[in-house]
Amino acid sequence: MNAMIDVAQQTGLSEGTDSDHRNNGRARVDIDCDIRIGNRAWRRAQLADLTPDGFQVTILDMPPRGTPLFIRFAGIQLLQAEVCWAKVDTAGCRFLTPISPYVFDHIVATCG
Questions:
Q1: Among 41, 58, 73, 81, which is disulfide-ready with 93 (CB 3.0 to 4.6 Å)?
Q2: What confidence score (pLDDT) does residue 24 get?
């Protein structure tokens, strides 16, 4: 899996600390994951943005708002979410239960 954090660019800092992405609440990432939308088969997808409350994902043929989905990363339990908005091949989704700061940090630090 490939992860790229661009905290310095987001915050305007030339050098970031380990906690900048948590303090900002949002991490720009490039994470490969598996996603299951509704009753469809599992597919590969790319996350471009991650917060403890949700994520932005790129995948073809996104379903309408309110559609349930499951997402999984290597080493992390299956997470439930729902589509909040969708445009062509990109969607914003929210976790049904926000992930803890520890899980958020773990995903950002290890999915790479």
A1: 81
A2: 53
